[in-house]
Amino acid sequence: MKLTIFLIIMLFQFYTYISLAQCGSTLNCPIDKKYNYIFCNSTTNQIMSKCSVNPNAEIEPWSVMKITLPVCLNFYDSGPSRVEMQTMTGGYQDVFRKEYVQDELNKAAFSWNCLCGKENLPCSSKINVYFMYRPQDFPPNPSSTVARLSPVVSGNTCQSKVNKNCNDQLDQQTIIRINNCKEFTGTDPSNSKKKKFFINDKYFDDNPNYFEDNFYDDQRPIIY
User: How far apart are CA 2 and CA 44, in angstroms?
Assistant: First the structure.
């Protein structure tokens, strides 16, 4: 699951688009290749996502979104406590437990912060992560949208607004929404038995062949 969060949060690229490498090292991507960035308009506060070779060369009033590293990811208590899926033998096997989520988010944040050698510094920004169950939270297609980063920025600086205190409202902060709606999982949000869901890394840590030992190809949960 930490990979999902890592890939979503990578949308927050700023200054240069850097590739995952050993902690503390920075690898710039090829200068002739476009990557996806989030831009904001300082006049209208409009937000858009588009590919760019050099995001810092965008014509005003557009500028690339920025966030202050190091960032921490905080799991807001939401979603199911436990999820099971049917196995090849007809029984049910665990694929998700809520108590493992925060540790996986910590690993995701570490993977991102270490790109710039800031993995051991105190947090400068905090992004809350939520399981959401409303289809409208996952456009354009809630049946296939795994998760969604909902950015809120300061129009003047294009700086991401992150949750610096616990009183911030959802519409006043940048958050990550994880899909728990029926259209995506195949069952009601409160149902612990799902047709599709996220699997905790712990199950692979304990058994690298966890999928092969338990699930058919078309019954497997999503690997994130």
Answer: 34
Asked if pLDDT for residue 201 goes beyond 90, the answer is no
DSSP, collapsed to helix, strand or coil, labels residue 16 as strand
HSE of 92, CA atoms in CB hemisphere, 13 A: 11
Alpha carbon distance 128, 169 (integer Å): 11
Count of C-beta atoms within a 10 Å radius of residue 45? 14
Between 138 and 26, residue with greater pLDDT: 138
pTM of the model: 0.75
User: What residue has token string 């436990």?
Assistant: 82
Paired tokens of 203: 């199950």
Residue 14: strand, helix, or coil: strand
Q: Quick one: the chain helix, strand, coil %, rounded to 5?
A: 25, 25, 45
Find out whether the peptide bond into 61 is cis, omega within 30 degrees of 0. Answer: yes
Tokens of 167: 């009183």
DSSP readout, 53-118? Answer: S-GGGPPTTEEE-B-PSSEEEEE-S-S-SEEEEE-TTSSEEEEEEGGGHHHHHHHHHHHHHGGGT-
C-beta separation of 11 from 49 below 8 A: yes
174 in Cβ contact with 149 (< 8 Å): yes
**Interaxial angle between packed helices 101-113 and 2-9, expressed in degrees from 0 to 180 and rounded to the nearest 10:** 40
| Span 11-32, average pLDDT | 44
State whether residue 20 is helix, strand or coil. coil
Mean pLDDT in residue range 25-43: 63
- The residue written with tokens 């006049």 in the block is 43
